[in-house]
TrEMBL record:
Protein name: Trp operon repressor homolog
Summary of the function given for this chain in its UniProt record: This protein is an aporepressor. When complexed with L-tryptophan it binds the operator region of the trp operon and prevents the initiation of transcription.
Cellular compartment(s): Cytoplasm
Transmembrane annotation, as ranges: none
Keywords: Cytoplasm, DNA-binding, Repressor, Transcription, Transcription regulation
Length: 97
């Protein structure tokens, strides 16, 4: 019988990160899981969401400020459009802390 991977879906990964946070091992886990480029991309994505939610800058201005392509900003914008106002408020509060 073929071997099956231990982790097969996104929720399991979220649970792993949650557990690593509870045991104060999240920094080690995320550093090991993500390459330096992926960590940089994650920083950019957080900033994209924050700027889109603030609504003060155009997508082109955000692109120039963060040094990412307009298409990356558009993907973030499209993801936000699929969220409820409650979800948008929750992420805004999370990003403003």
């Amino acid at each position: 019988m073929a071997q099956q991977p231990e982790y097969t879906d996104w929720q399991q990964i979220l649970d792993l990160i949650k557990h690593s946070t509870a045991t104060e091992q999240h920094e080690m886990l995320l550093t090991m899981l993500l390459t330096p480029d992926e960590r940089d991309s994650l920083v950019a994505r957080v900033n994209i969401l924050r700027e889109l939610l603030k609504g003060d800058l155009s997508q082109r201005q955000i692109s120039q400020m963060l040094g990412v392509g307009v298409a990356t900003i558009t993907r973030g914008s499209n993801e936000l459009k699929s969220k409820s106002s409650e979800e948008k408020q929750a992420i805004t509060e999370l990003l403003e802390r």
